[in-house]
Amino acid sequence: MVSEDMTQMEAPRIDSGRIAEVSHGLDRSEVERREKVFSVSGLEVSYHGNVALDGVDLAVHKNTVTAFIGPSGCGKSTFIRCFNRMNDLVPGAKVSGTVLYHGEDLYARDVDAVEIRRRIGMVFQKPNPFPKSIYDNIAFGPRVLGMKGSMDERVENALRQAALWDEVKDRLKEGALGLSGGQQQRLCIARALAVNPDVILMDEPASALDPISTTRIEDLMHELKRDYTIVIVTHNMQQAARVADMTAFFSVLVDEDGGRRHGILVEYDSTRKIFTTPSDKRTEDYVTGRFG
Amino acid sequence: MRVEFQGELDALEAGFQDAGEIVLRSIRGVVDALRTQDVELCDEVIAFDDEVDERYHALEKQIELVLARQTPVAGDLRLVLALLHSGLHVERMGDQCVTIAKLTKLSSHLDTKQTVIESLVDMGERCEEMVKVSLDAFAQRDVERARGLHGLDELVDRANRQVFGEVLGYVNDPEALEWGMRQITVARCFERIGDNAVDIGEQTAFLVTGEFAEFTDASH
Description:
heterodimer; A: alpha/beta; Rossmann fold; ten-stranded mixed beta sheet; 11 helices; B: mainly alpha; Methane Monooxygenase Hydroxylase, Chain G, domain 1; 7 helices; about 85% helix
C-alpha cells in the first residue's frame, strides 16, 4: 500500500534496462523451453505382476536438475531406474508405456542397453568404488569402452569436474577405498563423467554423507548442470528445494479393497511452485510434513 | 504430524493477534485524547507503546527461531512471512499513535477548531474499525473481507483531504495555522494507520492465494 498523498504524483518513468533482473532457480517456462531429454507417457512398472508405479507422464529437460521426492514405497527409485533400463536387470520387472530419450524409444528392441548406460550414468546411495586405485576407478569405463585419447587427461578432467582433483592429484595410484565417504561419492560421480555421458541419474547420492560432504555434492550438481542433465531421487526435501529446477512429487495410492499399494505421480512443477504454492493438497501435506 | 511445529505456528499467530489487540487500545486512547484534549492520556499512550514493541520483538524472535529450526515451506512459509510483515505493520501503527499523542500534547496550549477535531476523531474511529477488520480477516483467512479494507481506506483518505482543505483556510491566522499544521500531521498519521490495515489485508490475500498483489497500485 502506497500512501494516498503520493497518488497525486505523476507516475515515474522506469528504464527497465537499468533494473537488474534477479533470478532464483529456473521457472517452469524457462525449463520447458529447453530440449526434452526424456519424455515419459503412460508409464507402468510392475514386479511379478504387482504394479509398483502407474500412469506417469512427465518430461525432463536439458541442462536442468530434476528431483523426485515422495514417501517410501512411492516408486521414485523404481522410476529413476527406468531412465537407464536398470529395471531390465531385476527379475520379474516389466515396464510398459513410453520412455523417449531425445525422441527415440528407450525400450525399442534394437536399443543397446550398454550404450544407454554409457550415455546415462548413475550414482547410487552408497558410494561403490571398485577395490582399485583412484586412477583405475576412473579409467575403467573408458578402457572397457575402448575410448580413444589420453587417459591421463580424461582422468584429470573427470576428477576436476567432480571437484576432487585437488584432494587426490598426489595419490592417484592409492586405493580408492582409503578415501572418505564424501570423496568416494565424488569419485563415483567422476567415474560416471569419465565416459562422456549426457545424463547423470543420482539415487539418494548424499543420504549416507555428512553435512559438509552433502553441501559439496549439492554445489557440484549446480556446476554439472551446465554440461549435463541431472535427475536426482532424494528423501531430503530441503535438498530438492536447494538443488532442483523441477520437482516431481510421488505418493502411494492404497486400493480400497485389497489394501494393495502402488506409486503415482501427484504433481510435477517448478521447484519454486512445489515449495511455495503447490497445486495439490497431497503435495502441500507432504512438503509441510503433515503426511508421510 | 509435526504437533510441536503446529503448536509453534499457533503461538506465533496468537502473538500477532495479541499485538493487534494492544495497538487497538492505543488507537482508542489517542482518539479519546484528541476528543477531550487530555494531555495525561497522551502520556499514557506514549508509555503504552512499549507494550506494542515488546510484543512485536517477541514475535520477530519466535519467527526467527521457527525459520531456523523448522524450515517451513508452502502454506506454513506463507503464514510465517505474512505474520512477520503484518507484525511490523502493527508495530508501525503503534508508532503513529505515539506521534499523534505527542502532537496533541504539543498543540494543547492553542485554541482548537471543533470541525477539524471532529474530522480527526472520525478518521481515528474509522481506523480502529479497519484494524479490527484486518485482524479478523487474517484470523479467518477471509480474503473478501480483507479486500473490503480498500473501500474503508478511501473514506479515511477523503477525511484526510478534508482536514487539509480546512487548515488551508487558516492562512491569515498565525496561531490557528500553527495548530492546524500539527493537525495535518495527525491526519497523516491516521491515514498511514489505514494504509497499514490495508497492508495486513494484502498479507491475508497472499496467505490464502499464494500471490502477493497490492489492492491498489498508487504508482499508476
